[in-house]
Each structure stands twice: as C-alpha cells, then as structure tokens.
C-alpha cells in the first residue's frame, strides 16, 4: 500500500499530539514560553491513559483498510494522476469520510 503523505489516519502520533494539546489547553495556566510548554507536555504525557495509546495501535488495521477502500472508491485515474480539479474534489470527499471515521476515536 502506498502511504499517503501527512495522513493523520495512518499516523497515530497525530492523535496523541491532539490529546496532549487538548490537555494543555484545558489547564488553568497556559505556558508562557517553550520551556514551560515542554514541562507541561512531559507532565501530560505521563498522565495519558495507556488504554488510549493501546487502542490507537489496535486501530491501525481498520485505518489502513479504510484508507485503501477510500482510495479505490474515489479514484479518478486520468484526472487524479494530473492533480486536476476532480482529484482535489475526490481527495476532499475522502478526507471528510476519514474525518468522520476519526470521530469514532480511535
């Protein structure tokens, strides 16, 4: 399978970064500099539920299958290879479908 560039669906660490970002944003005091941000990230990393990380790993098979299915469903070979308008439209539709899958986290 070709690995789609920058695909959050196939990059579980993006979900971890999102969870860390939400935890930092929920704090009463926000970081004032990069050193504070680094310290807060380390503190929140330790508190991340191991079950969440485990489920992200387990979800990879489903994510790969969904990406392959989406690619097959929405492929417009001639225009997609040239990067034309239909390619962007289909990529956008596929991205919305994958986004909806992510809402079922993980």
- Gross morphology: elongated
Radius of gyration, in Å, reads 17 Å
Q: Could you spell the SSE succession in H and E letters?
A: HHHHHH
Q: What's the mean pLDDT score?
A: 75
Total number of strands? 0
Oligomer: single chain
Largest sheet: none
- Counting helices, strands and paired strands, the structural category is mainly alpha
Number of helices: 6
GO molecular function, one term: nucleic acid binding
Region (Disordered): 79-106
Biased composition (Polar residues): 84-95
Protein name: Transposable element Tcb2 transposase
Topology overview:
Blueprint: H1 12-25, H2 34-47, H3 50-58, H4 60-73, H5 77-82, H6 85-102
InterPro entries: RNaseH_sf
GO molecular function: nucleic acid binding
Protein name: Transposable element Tcb2 transposase
Question: Which key phrases capture this entry?
Answer:
106 residues; mainly alpha
Describe the protein's architecture and organization.
By secondary structure, the chain is mostly helical. It is built from six helices and no strands. Helix 1 crosses helix 2 (34-47). Mean pLDDT is 75; it is low at 85-90. This is Transposable element Tcb2 transposase. GO terms for molecular function: nucleic acid binding. Residues 79-106 are annotated as: Disordered. Residues 84-95 have a biased composition (Polar residues).
């Amino acid at each position: 399978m070709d690995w789609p560039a920058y695909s959050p669906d196939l990059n579980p660490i993006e979900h971890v970064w999102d969870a860390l970002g939400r935890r930092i944003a929920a704090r009463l005091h926000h970081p004032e500099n990069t050193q504070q941000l680094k310290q807060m990230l380390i503190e929140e990393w330790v508190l991340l539920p191991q079950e969440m990380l485990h489920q992200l790993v387990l979800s990879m098979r489903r994510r790969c299958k969904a990406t392959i299915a989406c690619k097959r469903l929405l492929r417009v070979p001639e225009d997609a290879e040239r990067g034309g308008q239909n390619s962007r439209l289909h990529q956008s539709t596929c991205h919305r479908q994958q986004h909806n899958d992510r809402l079922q986290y993980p």
